């Protein structure tokens, strides 16, 4: 999953502490639904969608040969995992703080094939 503009939506209704099983409850509170996916339902043709996921791990990738970005390992309620990349400029623009264990709603994203030598999921 690769970021575009307005990726992370910090919202009190999706913030931690969230208990296991709250995914379905949170869906009912969102009255303006776009096409909502689970991780297993994502693919390269996924667009105009959103996904509610739990942040399992995150780290800042500040390699000198590439753009600074935030890397995340995310999981939906079914336990399916995916690695996500958010460019730091997008992350900082929303001044949102992500913590491990938080449930976050991600919108306006692209799904791409993992390239590189390391797959985290």
From TrEMBL:
It comes from the Eukaryota. InterPro entries: NA-bd_OB-fold, RFA1B/D_OB_1st. Signal peptide: none annotated. Residues 39-121 form the Replication protein A 70 kDa DNA-binding subunit B/D first OB fold domain. It holds the Pfam family DUF223. This is Replication protein A 70 kDa DNA-binding subunit B/D first OB fold domain-containing protein. It comes from Microthlaspi erraticum.
């Amino acid at each position: 999953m690769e970021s575009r503009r307005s990726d992370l939506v910090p919202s009190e209704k999706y913030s931690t502490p969230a208990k296991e099983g709250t995914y379905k409850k949170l869906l009912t509170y969102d009255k303006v639904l776009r096409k909502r996916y689970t991780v297993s339902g994502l693919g390269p043709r996924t667009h105009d969608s959103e996904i509610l996921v739990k942040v399992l791990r995150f780290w800042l990738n500040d390699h000198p040969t590439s753009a600074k970005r935030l890397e995340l390992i995310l999981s939906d309620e079914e336990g399916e995992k995916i690695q996500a990349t958010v460019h730091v400029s997008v992350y900082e623009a929303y001044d949102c703080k992500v913590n491990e264990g938080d449930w976050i709603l991600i919108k306006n994203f692209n799904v791409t094939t993992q390239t590189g030598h390391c797959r985290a999921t």
